[in-house]
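--- STAGE predict ---
source: upstream dedup step, 1 unique chain passed
mode: sequence only
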Amino acid sequence: MKETAEIKIGLFAIGLDTYWQQFPGLRERLEGYSQVIFRQLQGLGCEVIDVGLVDSLDKAKWVAETFRKNDVKLIFLFVSTYALSSTVLPIVKDLSIPIIVLNLQPVPAIDYDKFNSLGDRGLMTGEWLAHCQACAVPEIACVLKKTNSRFKIITGTLHDTVSWNEIREWVAAIRVIESLKSTSIGVLGHYYCGMLDVYSDLARLSAVFGCHFELLEMCELARIRKSISDQQVKLKLEQFNREFAVSPECEQTELERAAKTACALDELVKEHSLGALAYYYEGAGGEYEDIITSVIAGNSLLTAHGIPVAGECEIKNVIAMKIMDLLGCGGSFSEFYLADFQEDILFLGHDGPGHIAIAEGPVKLVPLPVFHGKPGKGLSIEMKVRHGQATLLSVVEDPDGSVKLLFAEAESVPGTILRIGNTNSRYKFKIPIREFINNWAMVGPSHHCAIGVGHITSILEKIAFCSGIRSCKVC
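--- STAGE serialize ---
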């Protein structure tokens, strides 16, 4: 995952104060378990507000206030032994943040022979209490349900990789959510006229994800472009040659035109501190059309370097791209391209921009004599997504105004692609493509999606959960 927002996470353990006099050393042992969790969470690069072992009502009230003052974004509740739910209620009842209940035993199983050979039922009971984390979990879950808390449970052991992978995903999900809250998304131009599915409710999206939308003007980009120096263009051309396989077919005038626009886009991003950009424009000849027909190379570079750019003013999809980019798995602008029913393969791609950092092989910069469905001609990129695991993600606005995440896992597979100067790759799904296309479309997304590398639907589910929205996994 990329370096993203600083976050604070709350940690508290629960126990029962009645036990401490009855079973000497038990409290210290349970606190040791909690320290294992604390150190592991610190290793995930977040600030951990550890309030220790909560075993009374008075301490519970103090913990709630401590978490509020520190503005924690996620709480881990470690059930160290049996504990009363009354120690949990004061902490969670006024906090509207996700709670992850850690039902983590110290070991996978008690050594039964050693346990039964202790010979003292008091000692044996104390030993059992050090391993009975599961005992209180239903009680805690019942109270969390009654308070309408958002919570999930992780069951395992203190050191097992499955549990810790899940914990890492929860931390990553919160980090993405907090990063989105500080993201300013530029909107340049206007929607593709008549492409009704991409029209978006910016207020709703801001409310759900916390991002800010900055509405930009073409005349501003034109002004910046006029100020670009020959030296800046020269440096950008050098970057083209480093990051693209520049086709000999590309005319020098077209390369310089694209390089100048790319420099202007860089400056526009800096001036407005943008974390993402959605754009579309047509123009009727003249300066603006000259600019908009030369943006694909520069926008692809921005996308590869942490500023996702979506064409056709697909605002919902640039949020999906940003989520994937924050997770470090790409997020390339795509749509369904072609079905191959013989091989049960679905092609996805677009005329740009693409996420060149997740490309399989060289990314070709090539001339296009026509931008299909759009005015003019210019340079475009031809690439395919890295072979192996892939995930599709779409941000969906439902008819009732709510927002959800739609995703599916796939494999980017080798094979011939369409050499038309576009991004396009071949994808195989766990279900037949007939079924996939139908199931995906029936959820009601726009026709664009973001594609990233790796199977990350587990963490996307967590991002949706922590955002308080629904999610849908097709396969």
